[in-house]
Design brief:
The complex is a heterodimer of chains A (162) and B (585). Chain A has 162 residues and is of the alpha+beta class. Chain A contains 5 helices and 8 strands, in the order H-E-H-E-E-H-E-E-H-E-E-H-E. Chain A has a two-stranded antiparallel sheet. In chain A, strands 2-3 form a two-stranded antiparallel sheet. In chain A, a hairpin with a 2-residue loop joins strand 2 and strand 3. Chain B has 3 domains: 197 residues, Aldehyde Ferredoxin Oxidoreductase,  A, domain 1, CATH 3.60.9.10; 156 residues, Aldehyde Ferredoxin Oxidoreductase Protein, subunit A, domain 2; 166 residues, Orthogonal Bundle (Aldehyde Ferredoxin Oxidoreductase Protein, subunit A, domain 3), CATH 1.10.599. Chain B is built from 23 helices and 17 strands. In chain B, strand 14 and strand 15 form a beta hairpin. In chain B, helix 12 packs parallel to helix 14. The two termini of chain B are 24 Å apart. Classes of the chains: A alpha+beta (162), B alpha+beta (585). Chains A and B meet through helix 2, strand 2 and strand 3 of A and helix 7, strand 13 and strand 14 of B.
Chain lengths: 162, 585
């Protein structure tokens, strides 16, 4: 798996990106995949996610988004979720976000709530929680709750093998 | 809890946008959706107003489950006074609009008045704006939605009307997400009369419940052990087209304007035929079932055709060409027109033409002419100008009242009461005229184990269904989850944080049903209006199990008398003061 490094990052960030890249080669990187044939677009996964992690129902506070819409050519169903691109890790000015080789971890004590990670997330699945600190996707530490809730077994977790 | 406690009130005459607290004591009695919408409408409208005037309102109501993980809770109730019937009209629409309204911070949206020129309304949390809609006016629903998505983002959910609503067609609907409709009673023409082309909504606020861990437990259990079981799974596996087979084989499938109950071409338009063209299934928000028949045939894409379209715009018009029905369906969705009423109107026009009573230039099975009709009617062009008036008015002008298949001005849907006598009572007493959504006893009779040809026990059967749906559509849950009142009670108690026993919900259902009746009584409806087209009493069905059957008039009358008595209504069909007192109204 190749990791794309942004063009404007400084040396420190570059070092971290390299470290991240190396850590990934050990395998075990987690991701969520969607079987778009099975997905009906019900969004129960988004509701389950915000309920578990934020204690509320709010699709805008979910770590995954189902895009399900009619287009000119038919219908488009896809998933946006953490791809471990690690842009948030690179961007965080206080190094509050780390990658443990499987998922992201945030140190709430360090997070200043600046929102840089929210802005940089290409999937739109990082947001600030009600305490004003960053809510970072972590695949429910290996047991994604969304997978549990999908009524049609359309979402799966997948782990890279080294 | 779970309510946001805020109502958004928009007056299109004055351009005012106001936020007000949701009436808490009314929520305790009417919950939301159908019931709460009816309560607001009953209190805010004067009796006798013109439904297409500035005096009418459109009330868009969510409920205590909206926006939560309670399965099948994604629907919105829109309540108004119907231009087709002059009665109260509540339509429910699936998709994502209701949760989006709640996430924007509102339990209800009330639209009053009438704009001077075409407008649309946008809601983005606190930011509510009335915009010029001249660039959208005259466009179909599909293009309107696409355009508004460009202007407001893909995440915004749109409710809109097409040309039929703009042209005040008495059976225009409101569409959302291209293929979902608040379908009946001309609700789209009310929106058109307000010159309101669309409402666009997006929100990002939290919806909270009293006991989150318990609700997650209850909802998960409900999905696994209740929603996704055989009782409901037909909706996901085959969807409503599965009813074609049941209806046709029990002889209640309206064919050629209700002249027969068995359609020779049924197998060409049944679930098996549709399944082959159905690449995908689509669900409303928070629905574990997913009944949407997303269908592709040649160049036509549509979500549907649903059973009612297959019945009324298919068999009832003598059309067994699935491609043609899908095209008709897609055109109606885009123009914003109810396929039930239009199919019924065309069936009537075909019979009138074939009998030589009035030549509307269209005959049963004439697919070419049939496909021209949606456009002609929506724009009131040519023969469409007359047809747009609906069967009741057509029969007044040209005769044929005995086979004008309507009740109180609303065209009948797809279940012949001659083969399901309780269904006749359900149509005759439904709060919005000839409608199958108040109660659906055909499931117990023609499709079930009860003898369809007796009136014994049928009044109670209809009442039980009406009260059950009244509370279910107030909470607001989808028709397709056949859940118990105990399950409703468990979940509503958990969400609200107060004990709401089953008995309270039963009483609330009855209260809502009585309120709908009170509205219609105020509009002058009486016992004589609770009737059926003469064909049901006089012309025997020709084929299948109910061959030779009518619903005898005297049997119907005694079923109706028993119904009033069991309802606690007087002989004119008016709720008695004692009943209203008992229901704390």
């Amino acid at each position: 798996m190749k990791h794309k490094v942004g063009v404007d990052i400084n040396n420190k960030q570059k070092d971290r990106a390299v470290a991240v890249m190396l850590s990934r080669e050990g395998g075990g990187n987690m991701k969520l995949i969607l079987d778009s044939e099975k997905c009906t677009g019900c969004k129960l996964c988004e509701l389950a996610c915000s309920a578990k992690h934020q204690g509320v129902f709010n699709p805008k506070k979910a770590h995954l988004k189902i895009i399900d819409q009619y287009t000119e050519t038919g219908r488009e169903t896809r998933l946006k979720s953490c791809t471990l691109c690690l842009k948030c890790v690179e961007t965080c000015p206080v190094e509050a976000i780390t990658f443990n080789g499987k998922w992201l971890v945030i140190d709430d004590g360090l997070c200043t709530g600046c929102g840089d990670c929210v802005d940089v997330c290409p999937e739109g699945v990082v947001f600030l929680n009600s305490e004003g600190t960053a809510a970072i996707p972590n695949f429910c530490e290996g047991n994604p709750y969304c997978v549990e809730w999908c009524p049609h077994e359309a979402i799966h977790k997948e782990e890279d093998v080294a | 809890m779970s309510y946001r406690w805020e109502v958004l009130r928009v007056n299109l005459s004055t351009g005012s946008v106001a936020k007000e607290p949701l009436n808490k004591s009314w929520t305790e009695k009417y919950f939301g959706g159908r019931g709460l919408g009816a309560k607001y409408l009953y209190e805010e409208l004067e009796g006798g107003i013109d439904p297409l005037s500035a005096d009418n309102e459109l009330i868009l109501a969510t409920g205590p489950f909206t926006g939560t993980i309670v399965p099948c809770s994604g629907k919105l109730a829109i309540t108004t006074k119907s231009p087709a019937t002059g009665m109260i009209l509540d339509c429910s629409i699936g998709g994502c609009f209701a949760p989006q309204l709640k996430f924007a911070g509102y339990d209800m949206l009330i639209i009053e008045g009438q704009a001077e020129k075409p407008v649309y309304l946008s809601i983005d949390n606190e930011k509510v704006e009335i915009h010029d809609a001249s660039h959208l006016w005259s466009k179909g629903i599909f293009e309107t939605e696409s355009q508004l998505h460009e202007e407001h983002g893909m995440g915004a959910v749109v409710l809109s009307i097409g040309p039929a609503g703009e042209n005040l067609i008495r059976f225009a609907c409101i569409g959302s997400e291209y293929y979902r409709q608040a379908g009946r009673g001309g609700i789209g023409s009310v929106m058109g009369s307000k010159r309101l082309k669309a409402v666009v909504c997006s929100g990002g606020k939290d919806v909270t419940v009293f006991d989150m861990p318990r609700l997650l437990e209850l909802a998960k259990k409900a999905i696994r052990e209740d929603v996704l079981t055989d009782t409901n799974l037909w909706a996901h596996v085959e969807g409503t087209p599965s009813i074609v087979e049941m209806s046709n084989s029990s002889g209640v499938f309206p064919t050629r304007n209700y002249q027969d109950g068995v359609f020779a071409g049924a197998q060409k338009i049944n679930a098996d035929s549709i399944q082959k063209l159905r690449p995908h299934k689509k669900a409303c928000f928070a629905c574990a079932l997913g009944c949407g028949n997303y269908l592709c045939v040649e160049d036509i894409t549509v979500e549907g055709p649903e059973y009612e379209t297959l019945a009324l715009a298919g068999a009832n018009c003598g059309v067994d060409d699935l491609r043609a029905i899908a095209k008709f369906n897609a055109d109606c969705d885009d123009l914003g027109m109810d396929t039930i009423s239009l199919g019924n109107v065309l069936g009537f026009a075909m019979e009138m033409t074939e009998r030589g009573m009035k030549d509307f230039g269209i005959r049963f099975g004439d697919v070419e002419t049939y496909l021209k009709m949606p456009r002609l009617v929506a724009y009131r062009k040519g023969v469409g100008k007359e047809l747009s008036r609906g069967v009741k008015q057509l029969a007044k002008t040209y005769g044929g009242a005995e086979f004008a298949m309507q009740v109180k001005g609303l065209e009948l849907p797809g279940y012949d009461p001659r083969g399901s006598w309780a269904m006749g009572l359900a149509y005759a007493t439904a709060s919005r005229g000839g409608c199958h959504m108040s109660a659906w006893p055909v499931a117990d009779e023609a499709f079930g184990d009860l003898d369809p040809f007796t009136i014994e026990g049928k009044a109670q059967l209809v009442i039980t269904g009406q009260h059950y749906n009244a509370i279910k559509f107030s909470l607001i849950l989808c028709d397709f989850w056949a859940l118990s009142m105990d399950t409703m009670s468990e979940m509503v108690s958990c969400v609200l944080g107060r004990e709401v026993p089953t008995a309270n919900l039963e009483k609330a259902g009855e209260r809502v049903w009585n309120l709908l009746r009170l509205f219609n009584v105020r509009e002058g409806f009486k016992v004589a209006d609770d009737s059926l087209p003469a064909r049901i009493f006089k012309d025997p069905l020709k084929s299948g199990t109910p061959a030779g059957r009518v619903l005898p008039r005297e049997q119907f009358d005694s079923m109706l008398r028993e119904y009033y008595q069991l309802c606690g209504w007087d002989s004119e069909g008016v709720p008695t003061p004692e009943k209203l007192k008992e229901l704390e109204m």
